[in-house]
Specification:
Number of domains: 1
CATH class: Mainly Beta
Strand order of the largest sheet: 1-11-3-4-5-6
Oligomer: single chain
CATH topology: Jelly Rolls
Strand content: over 45%
Structural class: mainly beta
Shape: globular
CATH architecture: Sandwich
Radius of gyration: 15 Å
Number of strands: 12
Number of helices: 2
Helix content: under 10%
Amino acid sequence: MRAVVAYPTKPVAEAKLTYLGPTTKDKPLRSGEIRRQFGLKLRALNGCNLVYAMWRIEPKSELVVSVKLNPGKTTNAECGTHGYHTIKPTHELAVPHLNAGENHTLRAEIEGSRMLVFIDGKLRWEGLLDSDALALEGPSGVRTDNGRFKFELLSSQPVPGNQNPPCHAADQDE
């Protein structure tokens, strides 16, 4: 599942979530890997250009921050799985394993060039974004893969400017 807020937001998002367990049928990522995860999107210009903070559940419990950059492309049909690069943390702590039935809070925010990711109010990951990632502008959102979740997404009030960005949704869009 992929979704974004319908208006431009500040680069901060928080999800209060409960992991309900794996999906009844796994769907591999385009790479062929089966991964269970819940993530927050920041500066999501579109499905081809955004910043992710992913809480991976399986095959390994970890936090991964990545940037997907594909200038000039807007739909998954155009960019597919291209343009990803992982951001190395300057500080990180082990993340708790996400077990079915547990309630947690995942928060991601960008302050200047610093990306911060919190789980249950505790800083678990910090790193620096490059100028390409910082140049992106767009709303916050969520992404899930191969997991069932109950969640509430909290985001900022609309930022000044275009309150109705164009929708670039297409079949198989991310």
